[in-house]
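Re: beginner question about structure tokens

> Can someone show what the tokenized structure looks like for a real chain? I only ever see the sequence side.

Sure, here's an example I had lying around. Input first:
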Amino acid sequence: MTAVVDEKAVAGAAARRTRRGPAVLRQPGLALSLFVLLLVLLWAVRPAWFAGHGPFEADPVHRLLPPGGDHWFGTDHLGRDVFARVVYGTSASLRAALLAVAVGLLAGTVLGAVAGTVGGWLDGAVMRCVDVLLALPGLLLSLAVVSALGFGTVQVAVAVGVSGVAGIARVSRAEVLRVRSADYVAAARLAGVRPGAVLLRHILPNSAAPVLVLAALEFGTSVLNVAALDFLGFGAPPPQPEWGALIAAGRDYLATAWWLTTLPGLVLAGVILAANRAGRALEREDRDDHGDR
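And the corresponding structure tokens:
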């Protein structure tokens, strides 16, 4: 009877894995999200393919034109093409968000792995610091850090990354504690493998998937927080185009030129929603994999 049940469980797991790939392609929301992310990635890599104007080309004669055939997002108060500035600003905004995720992922993984592996008073001290960071709003913490570091895209990215360390550290510690009690880890220790090698070869690789999924979910939040700090003036100085700075630049023209803030804001919202949708899909995939095991 047990063999029959096990065979059914294995067959069900295999069927789920077989259906998973095509099922992802049949989800319109996920397909649209992936298309948006791919389009934005192409904007960052090859902006000249999509923008017919330069981001700094001023034409005072055609200032504050509404969206139309020649200027999809209209023009700003200097006659610059808003769509071109959005496309060319994608590279700086995405680089800052990716750097922020990398900072949070690296620091959080190290803290969580050390706390979960060493344990004892060090574990308690690290997790109390993590609790303090979690008690602070992420944007407020980013503002405090960027105020200490100064202005600039890199400083903004580091500040946003610091705000994401705590959540990743908690997940990393939980996964390290789970994997540390596995049979293959105990076998490696009994075989005389050094603790550092056990951590690098067995514990970290087998606890990385949930941490990476959380990092993917943090990407959308990082895009939003980077844009918020740019909006407040902490990013690259003008006339460099960044999404948050573009939205801030149109505040004085809301009554007469709504497109200066609305259209870049819609692009920002679309990217955040697409990143969150893709991250949730990865989270479900990881949850299903854990269920299969």
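Each token stands for a local structural state, so reading them left to right follows the chain. The CA atoms of residues 238 and 245 lie 8 Å apart.
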